[in-house]
Design goal:
Order of helices and strands: HHHHHH
Radius of gyration: 16 Å
Distance between the termini: 54 Å
Number of helices: 6
Strand content: under 5%
Structural class: mainly alpha
Helix content: 55-70%
Shape: globular
Number of strands: 0
């Protein structure tokens, strides 16, 4: 019984220790053949800077459509367009900010 309680507490604390990006992005994307880092590169190539990447990504997550996706037609034909994000504005912004910080290249180039 004690083992079950400890396991339950460990699982619950793991869920609450994850940030918005880990909770809402990583889980779904881990099943796709293109990593979140590769998708980030596509956004960066298209939108260039931080402000534009974040705005483009947020717009796509709120209003997903084939015409504004950065993914290839083949990818979309195989995996489809994601469903509209159900995150509130605060959580969506937090996840996008974490995503940017995780994969941005500007401060990492030397």
């Amino acid at each position: 019984m004690v083992k079950k309680v400890v396991l339950f507490i460990a699982l619950i604390s793991g869920v609450f220790s994850q940030d918005a990006y880990e909770r809402n992005c990583v889980e779904c994307h881990k099943e796709l053949p293109t990593s979140l880092q590769q998708m980030f590169k596509k956004y960066l190539l298209l939108y260039s800077g931080e402000e534009n990447v974040k705005a483009g990504l947020k717009h796509y997550l709120l209003y997903p459509s084939k015409s504004i996706s950065v993914m290839s037609e083949l990818f979309i034909d195989n995996y489809g367009i994601k469903k509209k994000s159900m995150l509130n504005d605060e959580e969506l912004t937090e996840a996008i900010n974490i995503y940017w910080e995780k994969f941005k290249v500007f401060d990492k180039l030397k």
